[in-house]
Amino acid sequence: MKEQSARPSGFQGYHKPVDGEENPELTHIDRGTKCGEYLRRYWHPVAMSSELGDLPLCLEILGEALVLFRDKTGNLGLLHRHCAHRGASLEYGIVAERGIICCYHGWHYNIDGTLIRAGSEPEDSPVYQRVIQGAYPTHEHNGLIFAYLGPPEERPPFPIYDTESIDGVEAIPFSITTPCNWLQVYENTQDPIHVLHLHALSSGVQFGAASGVEQTIDYKTTPLGMINIQSRKVNNHIWIRSTETILPNCNQTGAIYEEAESEKYFQRSAMLRWMVPVNNTVTRTIGWRFFSDELDPRNQCDRALVGKESIDFIGQTEDERSYTERQRQPGDYEAQVSQRDIAVHGLENHGSYDTGVSRVRHLLRQRVRAIAVGESALHPSPGPNGIATYIQDCVTPWVEHKHGTLDQTEMLTAFGKIITDAIISSDHLSASQRREAIREACLQAFDT
Q: How many angstroms separate the CA atoms of 394 and 242, rounded?
């Protein structure tokens, strides 16, 4: 028997460090920082369409003060907030037929930042040749407004994912603000063991009861980023869930209240969301919550709760419950925000179940450093249904292995690998063909 080393003695607070390295390479997102330049090579949602009325909307995105508006022609503009003339805020600008007019001296900018009229300056003034207001391209899509804040010559095509156009699925936009660094919100999606503890054992069952069943966990790199593979035996079924990271800051997860009671193959996303840094210490999670009979057979979800600073499951915002309630039953918000404004990576002590967090940091670090040395950002190509993604739930009957050579943990792990290979190898197929390929892999898995 291997002899265990002695554990440290207690009451060592005086000798333990209280500060450390916060990993600015991945956490700092201002313009000119490594991660900030990486993130600026992608489209990000910046607001819900419903937030934008007839007045300009103040925004901060990636540490930049901006103003979003819709001119009277219906075109969207996203401009630097402070007028290039004397710095007055365009949040007080007059929305015009074309563009916006600064209230202070009447300087009039088009949605691309070009100067239409410099107030009382004569039309032959040299200011027209040298002044342009900072502006960024926008794209409105299915109730969300996206923006690209990077070099204009590197602007990628707007991405549309395969989970956005599934028959019978309703997409409702939402936007939630979390007062902490973007990375600790994002990497939580690759920490599947927290589902067992935070959402079941620590606080009581917050989502589906099946989520509290012990699981085997594996990880796989995909063309878009990575997935974690959670494999559980739930009564007489085996449930394989793949939760997806789409780099640089997008996530998809499965049905919130999945109970793995009935057979299903390649059930798709319940949520497609981006963790967008407002600045280094505030994150805005924006995306769509998906609803369908398949995703919510018991009608446990509530469309009416999805929107601005609100979503229909527990533990995502500060204002949904009292402080005492949040202490008694903490959720994702409490766990993420309480890590400090910016989590101090130098004080962490990782265990074997932190593989997903370490892996997503590693993938991000690779991409961040590639941009820093002049490489181009990686952007996926669309397939027959848009950009193929890897989020899914499979539930299939449990059958004891005919050879009896594998215990339950080994069998769950082996089954998860077989299904994961099918998910990734079928990404070139149509949605129906892909579902059938994964169903076949499930049926054949017990014969291997």
A: 9
pLDDT > 90 fraction of the chain, expressed in percent and rounded: 74
Higher pLDDT, 342 or 197: 342
For residue range 429-442, what is the model confidence (pLDDT) as tens digits? 999 999 999 999 88
The mean predicted confidence, pLDDT, of the chain is: 92
Burial of 294 (0-12, 13-18, 19+ CB in 10 A): middle
127 exposure class (CB count in 10 Å sphere: 0-12, 13-18, 19+): middle
What's the half-sphere exposure (Cβ side, CA atoms, 13 Å) at 166?
25
- Assess contact for 312 and 301: CB atoms under 8 A: yes
Q: How many CB atoms lie within 10 A of CB 74?
A: 7
List the chain domain ranges: 43-154, 162-445
CA distances from 75 to 100, 152, 317, 438 (A): 11, 19, 32, 43
**How many residues does this entry show for the chain?**
448
> Concatenated DSSP letters for 239-279?
EEEEEEEETTTEEEE--TT----S-EEEE--SEEEEEEEEE
Q: How far apart are CA 78 and CA 66, in angstroms?
A: 7
Place of tokens 């996303």: 269
Q: Which two tokens stand for residue 234?
A: 């739930």
Helix orientation angle between 431-445 and 408-425, rounded to the nearest 10 degrees:
150
**How far lies 144's CA from each of 32, 68, 100, 107, 233, in Å?**
27, 13, 21, 29, 38
Q: Is 372 exposed, middle or buried (0-12, 13-18, 19+ CB in 10 A)?
A: middle
Specify which residues 416 forms β-bridges with: none
Burial 416-435 (b: 16+ CB within 10 A, else e): bbbbbebbbebbebebeebb
Q: Are 254 and 294 in contact (CB under 8 A)?
A: no
CATH H superfamily, domain 43-154:
Rieske [2Fe-2S] iron-sulphur domain (2.102.10.10)
Quote the distance between the C-alpha of residue 290 and its chain's center: 14
